[in-house]
């Protein structure tokens, strides 16, 4: 869950994005139960309808399913769906602009690749500890 909300972005959007991120990272897996709207409201001092709106978006996307009387759960295939959607946009929307920005700053391709390798090595070190 987000430690605090960012102004300028609706809270329900931030909640939905955080849940998507948790599913993508594997912190939430297919079939896992989500925190209830009441718990979100209490923890973050928000209106329960705000959390409910985030969940409704995720239900519409097929990432979350409501089990009547039990709660909200990560839908089967949610992770795979997010990976598929992310892969279709990542290169064009994220990687290419990042490389172009690095080149504009005067980095060459080898330097950019070295930074990527160093970053991923650092991530692996953090995961191992």
Task: Please describe what this structure looks like.
With 129 residues, the chain is mostly helical. It contains five helices and two strands. The protein has helices at 11-25, 37-44, 48-60, 78-104, 109-128, and strands at 64-67, 71-74. Strands 1-2 form a two-stranded antiparallel ribbon. A hairpin with a 3-residue loop joins strand 1 and strand 2 (71-74). The protein is elongated and about 55 Å long. The mean pLDDT is 92.
Described by strand count, sense and barrel closure, the largest sheet is: 2 strands, antiparallel
Query: Would you tell me the structural class of the helices and strands?
Result: mainly alpha
Radius of gyration: 18 Å
Mean pLDDT: 92
Strand content: 5-15%
Distance between the termini: 22 Å
Question: How do you describe this structure in short?
Answer:
64% of the residues lie in helices and 6% in strands.
Please outline the helices and strands:
Layout: H1 11-25, H2 37-44, H3 48-60, E1 64-67, E2 71-74, H4 78-104, H5 109-128
Antiparallel strand pairs: 1-2
Keywords:
129 residues; mainly alpha; two-stranded antiparallel sheet; 5 helices
């Amino acid at each position: 869950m987000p430690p605090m909300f960012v102004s300028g972005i609706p809270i329900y959007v931030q909640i939905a994005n955080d849940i998507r991120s948790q599913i993508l990272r594997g912190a939430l897996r297919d079939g896992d139960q989500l925190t209830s709207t009441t718990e979100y409201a209490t923890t973050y001092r928000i209106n329960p309808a705000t959390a409910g709106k985030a969940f409704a978006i995720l239900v519409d996307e097929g990432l979350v399913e409501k089990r009547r009387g039990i709660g909200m759960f990560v839908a089967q295939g949610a992770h795979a769906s997010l990976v598929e959607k992310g892969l279709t946009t990542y290169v064009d929307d994220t990687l290419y602009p990042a490389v172009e920005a690095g080149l504009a700053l005067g980095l060459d391709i080898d330097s950019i690749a070295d930074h990527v390798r160093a970053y991923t090595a650092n991530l692996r070190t953090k995961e191992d500890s």
